[in-house]
Backbone:
């Protein structure tokens, strides 16, 4: 089981948004999801007992590493994604609306917003969902966590 835990640790490290138990089992070539879950729980307990700066958590069927609450302020500056002001302005517009059609955003922010959307998606702040012939942009849990907002909370920028 130690080798399985080592592999799980490496995978979780490389996939910051997290991964499901089923996906982990598939990646590891293990047929038993229960065995992988047991290994995850064991690894989670080891991290708790070792008193590390981060922990392994399961959130909405996804397992991932997170920084412990007491160290968030310490690492916030280091973990801050560096985004140009134009991209941040596009993000602010999306945040103000909560959800917005990509076509509406492009009308407001010009065609450069296509690149902004791509960059915001890459850092994990925005998700893009197809709806009919257009895409709908919405904010991710990472966005709300990063800016310390409640999920679904709209920004009042006026």
Residues:
């Amino acid at each position: 089981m130690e080798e399985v835990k080592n592999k799980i640790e490496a995978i979780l490290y490389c996939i910051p948004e997290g991964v499901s138990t089923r996906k982990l089992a598939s990646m590891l070539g293990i047929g038993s999801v229960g065995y992988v879950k047991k290994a995850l729980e064991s690894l989670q307990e080891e991290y708790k007992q070792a008193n590390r700066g981060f922990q392994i958590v399961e959130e909405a069927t996804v397992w991932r590493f997170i920084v412990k609450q007491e160290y968030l302020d310490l690492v916030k500056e280091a973990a801050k994604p560096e985004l140009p002001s134009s991209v941040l302005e596009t993000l602010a517009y999306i945040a103000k609306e909560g959800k917005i059609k990509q076509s509406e955003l492009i009308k407001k922010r010009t065609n450069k917003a296509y690149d902004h959307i791509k960059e915001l998606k890459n850092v994990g702040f925005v998700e893009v969902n197809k709806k009919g012939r257009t895409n709908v942009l919405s904010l991710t849990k990472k966005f709300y966590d990063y800016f310390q907002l409640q999920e679904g909370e709209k920004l009042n920028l006026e």
About this structure: The longest strand covers residues 54-59. The chain has a mean pLDDT of 88. The radius of gyration is 19 Å.
